[in-house]
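Recall that a protein's primary structure is simply its ordered list of amino acids. Everything else, from secondary elements to tertiary packing, is in principle encoded there. The following example makes that idea concrete.
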Amino acid sequence: MPPPSNSSALHLLVLNEPFFVVQLQPGQEIAPCVLKDLTDGKGGFFSVTRTKDEVSLVGEAYKWMPASYKEQSTWMCIKIQGPMEHSLTGIMASLTAPLKVAKVPVFALSTWNTDYVLVPTEMLSEAARVLERDGWVFSQGQKSRVARL
């Protein structure tokens, strides 16, 4: 599905660093160094989600992260530029539908301002091609960055 609007807020950006996705069991401790880095502002994007079944840690790889997180930094992030109006509907569905057809796995997250879709690093170029064919626009300079990967 093409984007529901031509607004530059719906243009796409590929973030520079790989992302990690770590799953912890309920009650399993988050590494103290990770909590410290989170509160000290080290690294870029960082998300913690807790349910009764698990704790998911998702973030942009950074220099000081634990080795076990580096090993799981196998994703690249496509960000909708944002900020988006909360009245918009179907944005994530529109963004992920062509990736589903192309069999590109995704890990999706949302914040107040925008949406993020993580794709396996080795599938980033394919994801970008599929999204552009579907009518999504990568912001200036993003296409050449994707081509280098």
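The longest strand covers residues 19-24. The radius of gyration is 16 Å.
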